[in-house]
Amino acid sequence: MGQALWRVARNQQLQQDFGEQYYLQQEQQRERMGRRVPPTQGEQLAMRRGTPHCQVPGGDISHLLRVRKGKDEQGFIDLEMLPPELSITILSYLNATDLCLASCVWQDLGNDEYLWQGLCKSTWGHCSIYNRRVPPGFSYRKLYMQLDEGSLTFNANPQEGISYFMSKGILADHPQEIAKFIFYTRTLNWKMLRIYLDERRDVLDDLVTLHNFSNQFLPNALRDFFRHIHAPEERGEYLETLITKFSHRFCACNPRLVQDLGLSPDAVYVLCYSLILLSIDLTSPHVKNKMSKREFIRNTRRAAQNISEDFVGHLYDNIYLIGHVAA
Fold this sequence. Notes:
The protein is an all-alpha fold. The chain is built from 18 helices and no strands.
């Protein structure tokens, strides 16, 4: 709470300092030009406010803090003393736990629907209930608690977690809605998520289509893909399925690149496996003799003869400089 309050005060102080420096420079420039040009009405108003164009709403909070400090007053400012807009701005810096604690002191402010709506959508970016007409008595604070409970349930048992979301009306029973929920949520355990997607290939299909790989270099696109859909630890049917779906999606997002380089889903599939093997070779401490760039080009072009040597060389450079594609 204190950090949020001082952050708002610091921002306002910076704005005031900038405003004073700005108008001092304007005045010095007028003097150098040898003529006194009176400031405009807008400049006069901004000078009286202490900032060029912007100010923290609701009064001079930094001045209020300085006055309290000069009087040796202990504790923080009562948010109810401030305008509602400023109080909401301060509380918006808090997480859910701190906001619950704040609601014990400032009940109306801590239970503000705007704050809890922001917490819900910043943590769970997509839910079916967001696009529905909310029923009477609906509370975003209650929704946050349900989303948090459902996420914890998912991280223990994916099927029960999804069933919980559906039972509360948070998610619609449709693969596309579930895929969007997974894509825009970062609180789900990746191991449980991998188990769920291995069982629900229909959700996996829709999840892959949510990725946009347009104008991305192949290794970077593969990293982005595995950042959302974690690769299995061992090679198997699930990994082959992921790479196959990625290859088709990458080609669909880059039709010009496919045409210019002669790529195809099968060629991208081969290149992806080559990148994974190269990543392991270059990053594993157990591999003593690292694969050279010449060896990688030669081995890759044996499997994908239509791919140019320069393009394959750039792939090697990317892995060498940036690292593993599935880390």
